[in-house]
Design goal:
about 350 residues; 16 helices; about 70% helix; membrane
């Protein structure tokens, strides 16, 4: 069965990377316009996936942050970020990516009832995605593809599936993983990914194999010798989001990302030489982070970090003190509800 899943995954990835890049994922494709859930949508399974997220919120939020760095590294995404200058400073990156965090949290908080925040959030994401695709085709002669969207999908769920222990997910139940995958399978569908390019499959094993191949074949090579423009954009991301979590810094995040990509629990054993000469302070923080990820196997530790993370997200939405200090009250406050409902009115 494992052999079958692997062969199916290899065939899927080959099709995604070769055919997926030829098919658009914007308003020019009919599937991008759909707003209804797919026929395979299972409300109970979706809610189980949402519950799994909150049970492991610290690790999964961190895995999504690492995944976001990977998404930025994709040529299509990086070129558009440079072109639009929407993340061209610590402040603009903070506003853009905190809004992304709020979008994702909304998808875990609500259901697909007409008029729900979840649907309003998805509508806003699709509108902005489509606008960016239009700019890209006009200025870069490149239209966002199914491949780009599927690789972005990996950024939000891939590491939690293939590097679970390294991001604090220990011994998850099969049904929990099915629920987690189902969440992103349904979201991928509504966001315009065709089923033949949706990396979240009905089988946990096949989905895991697909993510593992993509990690090794697509994402890991991009960080062997990161481009100057990528380093710059990632610095903006991390410096901006340090207004939410002041413990993060560039070398901590990038070294740990490299550990995850190489599947090594010790930074001293990394093959990538870019992170051999990190400071003692970064080494100390890496050791603490690794210990936290290990200790998340214990329920009491998970509960503690669950409350810490939920509080941190609430603070970021209600009273982001550090952001006020760094960027001013106007720029430091990201009014998420205003963003999604203003988008709805403009349509």
């Amino acid at each position: 069965m494992e052999c079958t899943a692997k062969s199916l995954a290899e065939e899927f990835v080959d099709n995604l990377l070769n055919e997926g890049k030829k098919i658009p994922c914007d308003e020019t494709l009919e599937s991008f316009k759909r707003t209804e859930v797919p026929v395979y949508y299972d409300e109970k399974l979706y809610k189980r996936g949402q519950a799994f997220f909150y049970e492991n919120i610290y690790g999964l939020m961190f895995s999504k942050f690492l995944g976001l760095i990977c998404v930025i590294a994709l040529p299509a995404g990086l070129n558009v970020l440079i072109m639009t200058k929407m993340s061209g400073s610590d402040m603009t990156a903070y506003r853009r990516y905190l809004a992304t965090v709020f979008h994702v949290k909304t998808w875990y908080d609500y259901d697909f009832r007409p008029g729900s925040r979840l649907l309003a959030s998805i509508e806003d994401v699709k509108r902005k995605h489509n606008a960016a695709s239009k700019q890209s085709i006009r200025r870069l002669k490149y239209r966002f593809s199914q491949m780009d969207m599927a690789l972005t999908q990996f950024g939000f769920m891939g590491f939690g599936l293939v590097r679970g222990a390294m991001v604090g997910i220990h011994n998850p139940k099969e049904e929990d993983l099915k629920g987690f995958i189902h969440v992103w399978r349904v979201l991928g569908y509504i966001l315009g990914i065709e089923d033949r390019f949706n990396i979240c499959r009905s089988s946990v094993q096949e989905t895991r194999e697909i993510c593992d191949i993509l990690l090794k074949k697509v994402f890991a090579p991009m960080f062997e010798k990161p481009e100057t423009s990528l380093v710059k954009m990632v610095n903006y991301l991390i410096n901006g989001m340090s207004a939410v979590d002041p413990t993060i810094d560039y070398y901590l995040c990038m070294t740990y990302l490299q550990m995850v990509l190489e599947n090594r629990g010790n930074y001293r054993k990394l093959e990538n030489q870019n992170y051999k000469n990190i400071s003692w302070w970064v080494k100390t923080k890496l050791s603490i982070l690794s210990m936290i990820m290990y200790c998340l196997k214990f329920k009491i530790i998970r509960l503690y970090f669950q409350y810490i993370t939920v509080f941190k997200l609430w603070l970021a939405s209600a009273f982001p003190v550090l952001a006020y200090i760094r960027f001013g009250i106007k720029n430091g406050h990201v009014n998420f509800l205003k963003i999604i409902y203003r988008s709805k009115k403009s349509n």
